[in-house]
Every structure is written in C-alpha cells, then in structure tokens.
Amino acid sequence: MKQRRPRLMDDFDHVSVERAIAELRSGRPVIVTDDDRAGLVTSVESAGDVLAKSLSDFADSKSHLVLTAARLRRLGVERQTAGTIALPRLDQDRIASLALRLDTRADAPIGTTSIIDRAGLELAALALLIPSVIVIPLAAPTLAGEQIQTIRAEAVEQYRRQAATNLTIVSRAPVPLEGAGSTEFVVFRGGEGLRDQVAIIVGSPNFGSAVPTRLHSACLTGDLFGSLKCDCGDQLRETVKWMAENGGGVLLYLDQEGRGNGIANKIRAYAFQAKGLDTYEADEVLGLDMDQRGFDFAAEMLRQLGISRVTLLTNNPEKIAALRRSGIEVAAHKRIFGRETSDNVHYIATKRDRAGHLAE
User: Which contiguous run of DSSP H or E holds residue 31?
Assistant: First the structure.
C-alpha cells in the first residue's frame, strides 16, 4: 500500500492569505479567484509604479476601483456597503483623487461589489494599507509566465475568524519595570499577520478571581514618544502603576496601532487632523471606519494564561462587549484616565461623543 506523503502545510488557504498580505505590502499585485472568475488586485498605494510598468497591459473596460462605504461617504455617496467605480483607463491622478484626496466627489456611477472585490479590500485592510484597491478582471485565474500569488476569495473572507485563536506562546521572562519590579512579559505569536502580541503580568494576580486586566492597543507616538495628541501613554503607565499598587493584574499590549489601521495610516490621518478634521473624520477620508480592531485574539491570550474572569480597566464599552462575546466574563470595569491637555482635549471629547467612551 502506497504511503501518503506528509504535507508541509496542512492549511494551504491560510498560508496563501498570509503570502498575499505580504505581496500587497511589498507593492506587488495578487490574483483573487472565485470559481472560474479571477481578478488582478493591487492596492492604490502601489498604483504609481505598478500601473505604469505592469498593470496597463492587462487592463480592460471592466477594470474598476473598489472603495469602502466610509470613503464613498466622503465622496458624497451615502451607502452602507463598499462600491466600485469604473476605470476605462488606469489614470493614476484620477485614482489618487478618488481614493485619497480630501475634497473630491464621485465622478461616475457607483457599482456593486463582487466577492473578489470584497476580498481585495479585506486583504488591503489586513496588510494595513489604505483600504482601496484596483481590480482588473482576468480571463483566466493564472497569467502565463507570471509568478503572482493566487488566493481564493472565500479563504480571505474566513481568514480573520480562523486566525483569531491561532496563537502560541513563544517566550516569557521577568522584566522589572519602574514602579513595578515584579513583572513578567509573555510573548504570543500568530493571529492576523503573525504579529507578536504581549501579555504583561504585573505582580501576582489571583487567576482564580476577577483579574484586573487592560487591553491596550499599541500607540507608538503616545506610549514611546509622549505625544500630546492622545492620552494613551498616560493610560499605559497609570495602568501598570495601579496594578502594582493593588495586588497585580494583566495588561495585554496589542499590536493594533491607530485603532487597527497601522502606523502609516495613523500618520496620514494626523495630517488630515492638522487641517481641522476630528480623529474619526480623518480616518473616514482614508476609507476607514471608526474602529478596525477586533479583540477575539485578546480573549484567546487570556484563556491561554488561564484567565476566564476579569475586571476590565477601560473607558471603551466595545472592549467590554467584545470580551463578553468571546466568552470572557467581565465581572466589573474600572475607568482609566490620562491627562487632558490643550492638544488632546478635543480628541478625548470626540471619543466620548462619537464612540461612547466613558470619559467622565
């Protein structure tokens, strides 16, 4: 009897999505398929070089730009779902205007999206790129002589849900902190994009009771450089200090910069804020919704640490609801505040008024 050859990769769909994410971040197009249909997908961030050198040869009259509902609202089109705008020519200036500029309006009818279009937007979001993509329909799912990553649209749709619990502890060690000498860092790898996530165990919390816990999304500008535009750094340090003085706790430091948008989009949004937009309006210009974060993987981190019940240190009601949806009991919650300054008072008020944060 012939023995089955062992497979190096049991979940090829999952692996192919991760490869597609890397390709888009590198500025290269990918092919997304759905049964006998296929589309060549590239991010608008790559449009300049890629369009000029490669894509024009493949473009046809059905090529289109795919925009999120948030970006369409900025273009003056009120709708709840993403849409498409036809691209008779791959005009780089028109594409940049429709996808990125502040005062543009839609210049053509808005079409409906296919599963390939939606998968393209999801890949761009997973790659932390601007969520606008160019899709060029293909007559066949492969291009002769071209080594382009191919991925099934259905695999992209399922990726986040499957990745949420695919986490592994890869290292841990004591790391004494100022004001919290007994502290352990536990590093997890996996989830979306295989980014590292960190659990910081402060003191000796009782994992058999409601463990004081904070879900803190990384903020390079605030946490490290002391940016005055937000209160994140203050919240981070105040949390560690409070835990050290109150029997311990667990802080999950999550790689979700800019409410899940990535550092590049966060700084792009800051540029729009400098023109007078609030934090959510600035994200909308880029095609981003109010919050791109998910917290399923944070719940999985807690479970792997042996925590099922928490007292959550947060001002964000969505974090409370997200943990509860993921099966973690939130026994209570405690608000955690940073300093209000002339630079961040509008930001804090906007979170309170538009996203329901508990800011008082």
Answer: strand 30-34
